[in-house]
Specification:
Elements (H helix, E strand, L loop, with lengths): L29 E12 L2 E12 L4 E4 L6 H8 L9 E9 L2 E2 L5 H7 E4 L10 H11 L6 H11 L3 H4 L12 H13 L5 E5 L7 H14 L4 E5 L3 H7 L2 E6 L2 E7 H6 L4 H7 L5
């Protein structure tokens, strides 16, 4: 594709309007800056010289085929990769200018929360699921108010306010995922990482999560890994494509989907790669 030439947008991504941005993606201050990041599992390298910027208070989507390194990159952002044996990283990841590898991991994970692909409520009540992280971090004052605030932010309060002490496992799959988001939000993180949060959900629950993500960028910086191009186009302000552990391209979402700079991006978006 020649420079400046618009690509034929795949049918799956036509007529999709990106989420309204709070700021212009290219001009926003960066919440996270990654410089020369490489990662290995044992001797197998999975990330290669990753360089990117995550704009503050915007939704950044990371797309790419399975095995491209998306989830590994996300887990590096709060050093969760360190819980897996024989992992190693080199490079710099800055959070508000601080190198995360010099921070205490527990303190970092309070600032950078994470929601996983499959909802994983604890075998406790709805209330205790939200209160769990608050209690272990010594935030026991005004516990009921903190739990309610978190459930409201996750758009779940009205559905569970009369059964807070019922088991969380009684909730539907979509409700469980919003509960997990509320649990992460209870610690008021600056960044919220979401690894394929809708992959196990039905379309209605997926729409609720997407609506929730758009509201969350008013108070934190969501970073979303997804294999669904439609979802990235609907909710994100900025988008990166990873292929084989390398950043191929990063642009404001509308531009990446309509006028990609790299022919590999066009090939992926039109289904000829991955």
């Amino acid at each position: 594709m020649h420079a400046g030439e618009a690509m034929n947008v795949p049918e799956c991504c036509q007529n999709i309007q990106p989420a309204p941005a709070t700021r212009a993606g290219a001009d926003s201050a960066a919440k996270i800056v990654v410089q020369g990041l490489n990662a290995w599992y044992d001797r197998r390298q999975v990330l290669f010289d990753i360089r990117l910027r995550v704009p503050d208070r915007q939704i950044t989507a990371i797309i790419g085929p399975s095995g491209s390194g998306k989830s590994t990159l996300l887990r590096v952002f709060n050093r969760l990769h360190e819980t897996v044996r024989h992992t190693r990283v080199e490079g710099i990841v800055l959070l508000d200018g601080e190198n995360i590898f010099t921070l205490d991991p527990r303190a970092l994970r309070q600032r950078v929360g994470m929601v996983f692909q499959v909802p994983n409520p604890f075998p406790k009540s709805i209330f205790d699921n939200i209160a769990f992280g608050l209690r272990i971090n010594g935030l026991r004052d005004h516990l009921a108010e903190r739990v309610e605030r978190s459930l409201r932010r996750a758009a779940l309060w009205d559905e569970v306010k009369d059964r807070l002490h019922r088991p969380a496992t009684e909730l539907s799959g979509g409700q469980q995922q919003r509960l997990c988001i509320a649990r992460a939000l209870a610690l008021e993180p600056e960044v919220l990482l979401l690894d394929e949060p809708c992959s196990a959900l039905d379309p209605v629950s997926t729409a609720r999560i997407e609506e929730l993500l758009i509201t969350l960028k008013d108070t934190c910086t969501p970073v979303l890994v997804t294999h669904q191009m439609q979802q990235a186009a609907r909710v994100s302000d900025f988008c990166y494509l990873l292929l084989d552990g390398r950043v191929i391209e990063g642009q404001p979402t509308r531009q990446l989907f309509t006028t990609p700079r790299d022919p590999r991006t066009e090939a992926y978006l039109t289904g000829r790669y991955g």
